[in-house]
Amino acid sequence: MSDLKIRVFKTGAAQPETTVTIPGGILKLAANLIPKQAADALRTKGVDLDEIIKLASTPGFSGTLVEIEDHKEKERVVISVE
Fold it and tell me: Facing residues of 63 across strands?
């Protein structure tokens, strides 16, 4: 299973301000540890955690799953499977 990477960029920055890597082997367990409030916030941005876990479990799949730009907060979040 591939790793899930979540990178947070400030607008215009080439390097991420924050990177979170969740190893594929514990992705299902880690998803259960995400607070409901955070999962709901992701859902309102169009991010379905169950689908992300399913894609990360797909052999040979890699790439960007979601890219969210928050213009008010001046940041960009990229969720990818690597």
Answer: 81
Domain carrying residue 29: 4-81
Average pLDDT over residues 48-69: 86
Question: What pLDDT is recorded for position 66?
Answer: 86
By three-state DSSP, how is residue 68 classified? strand
For residue 68, pLDDT beyond 90: no
In this predicted structure, the answer to whether residue 65 has a pLDDT above a threshold of 90 is no
Nearest to 49 by CA among 22, 72, 76: 22
What's the structural domain count of the chain?
1
Per-residue H/E/C for the chain: CCCEEEEEEECCCCCCCEEEEECHHHHHHHHHHCCHHHHHHHHHCCCCHHHHHHHHCCCCCCEEEEEEEECCCCEEEEEEEC
